[in-house]
Backbone:
């Protein structure tokens, strides 16, 4: 048991480290998702007030769609 | 009267020329992600660049040497190759970022994707360099660059609490995402202390025939000009903190940044953002392209000068032609300008000791400066910021790359 103890400890610490890194990554992805949703809300609100051109609104919405798609792909990879 | 005019023009250059793709993107991203917490990095970078610009001007005025010229003479061509490659490489990446910034401004205005604009922007930069003289390039771009003061106006309209800015002048540890925090900090310092700024300034002092009577003018321009310029960058960070951080918005793409002026200023906010981004980046692109050509031509002892006809300084002209063309092509491939900008700024911070230490050695050499050698405070301040930024960059860049 004494021989295996360091190996088991290292494995447990590594597992916990990986788990914590995965948790942190998932939290980061959630924040990025919320960030894009808030961007869309702000842009839509300003667009409704007619203070930004329609072309620009479209550019932000396209960027948000691409950003959200990247987050979805990363989240899918993370859950595998 | 001519000295007063020189000071006024120098201050305009400092204010109008400070903001460019790097400082705009890093300040906006930092304000959005960490609120006012990274104001200290901007303050540190501004103090450091003020010292460096003053040194470059003093070296030119007293020794009549530009920076690369003095470096090659003092250290020999073999040693000089190291800072030459480092400065040329980071300046080239920053040049590409600036062309990307102008192209994005045109994308916002027209809806046509930025990569289609890149060749046209590169051509416009080259044409202006080919056809005009140094003063017009420097002063014209900076005068138009005063439009960036709109960020200060927006900051006031947003009722930015000055106590928040003052309270973060000293560094503090981040509550979350330490790798991103330190990466942003070095990117901000890299954006503020871009080597092209003091290389360009030293060449400008020679082109304008400065002598020792300009030392006072030089000190005022470096101190006040960079100080006011830094204030504009703080206003960008503050605006991003007020508009984005409070809503949980992080800056992932350039497309998000105009919102920070539209929210407080409405329709004019959008127009002035597009003008600020376009003009500031275009002015910086002109200066960086010239700066690369100055560096190479002065380093190798070629004939140089924006005030002489292109055919009379053919190798100098060829250098900026190649730099502008390749940078334009890089953006035309569709490379993300925001990622390129942030990465270039971090690399700039990493290369600071290589670019700054030779300057410090020169500034303490009485053969070049006579009685005007550096005070120990200037040496200590610049060395501290450069080495600190480099060490933090060494740790933060790999962590950030692995994290993303």
Residues:
């Amino acid at each position: 048991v004494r021989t295996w103890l360091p190996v088991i400890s290292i494995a447990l610490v590594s597992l916990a480290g990986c788990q914590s890194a995965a948790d942190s990554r998932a939290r980061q992805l959630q924040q990025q998702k919320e960030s894009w949703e808030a961007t869309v809300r702000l842009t839509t609100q300003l667009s409704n007030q007619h203070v930004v051109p329609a072309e620009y609104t479209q550019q932000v919405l396209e960027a948000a769609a691409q950003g959200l798609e990247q987050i979805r792909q990363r989240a899918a990879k993370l859950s595998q | 009267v001519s000295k007063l005019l020189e000071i006024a023009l120098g201050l305009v250059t400092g204010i109008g020329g400070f903001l460019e793709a790097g400082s705009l993107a890093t300040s906006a991203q930092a304000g959005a992600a960490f609120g006012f917490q990274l104001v200290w990095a901007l303050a540190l970078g501004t103090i450091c660049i003020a010292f460096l610009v003053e040194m470059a001007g003093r070296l030119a005025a007293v020794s009549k040497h530009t920076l690369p010229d003095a470096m090659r003479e003092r250290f020999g061509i073999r040693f000089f190759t190291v800072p030459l490659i480092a400065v040329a490489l980071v300046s080239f990446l920053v040049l590409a970022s600036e062309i990307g910034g102008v192209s994005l401004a045109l994308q916002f205005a027209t809806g046509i994707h930025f990569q289609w604009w890149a060749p046209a922007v590169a051509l416009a930069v080259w044409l202006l360099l080919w056809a005009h003289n140094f003063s017009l390039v420097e002063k014209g771009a900076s005068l138009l660059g005063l439009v960036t003061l709109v960020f200060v106006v927006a900051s006031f309209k947003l009722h930015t609490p000055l106590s928040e800015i003052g309270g973060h002048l000293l560094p503090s540890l981040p509550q979350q995402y330490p790798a991103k925090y330190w990466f942003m900090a070095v990117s901000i310092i890299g954006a503020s202390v871009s080597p092209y700024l003091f290389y360009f300034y030293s060449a400008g002092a020679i082109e304008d025939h400065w002598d020792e009577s300009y030392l006072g003018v030089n000190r005022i321009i470096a101190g006040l000009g960079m100080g006011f310029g830094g204030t504009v960058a703080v206003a960008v960070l503050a605006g991003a903190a007020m508009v984005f951080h409070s809503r949980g918005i992080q800056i992932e793409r350039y497309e998000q940044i105009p919102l920070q002026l539209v929210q407080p200023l409405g329709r004019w906010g959008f127009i002035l953002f597009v003008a600020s981004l376009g003009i500031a980046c275009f002015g910086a692109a002109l200066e960086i392209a010239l700066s690369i050509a100055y560096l190479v031509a002065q380093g190798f002892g070629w004939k140089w000068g924006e005030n002489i006809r292109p055919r009379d300084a053919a190798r100098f002209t060829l250098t900026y032609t190649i730099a502008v063309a390749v940078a334009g092509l890089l953006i035309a491939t569709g490379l993300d300008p925001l990622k390129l900008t942030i990465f270039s700024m971090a690399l700039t911070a990493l290369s600071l000791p290589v670019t700054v230490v030779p300057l410090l050695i020169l500034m303490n050499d009485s053969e070049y400066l006579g009685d005007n050698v550096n005070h120990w405070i200037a040496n200590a301040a610049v060395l501290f910021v450069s080495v600190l930024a480099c060490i933090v960059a060494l740790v933060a860049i790999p962590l950030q790359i692995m994290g993303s």
Observations:
- The first helix of chain B runs from residue 2 to 18.
- Residues 158 and 242 of chain B are 7 Å apart (CA to CA).
- The radius of gyration of chain B is 20 Å.
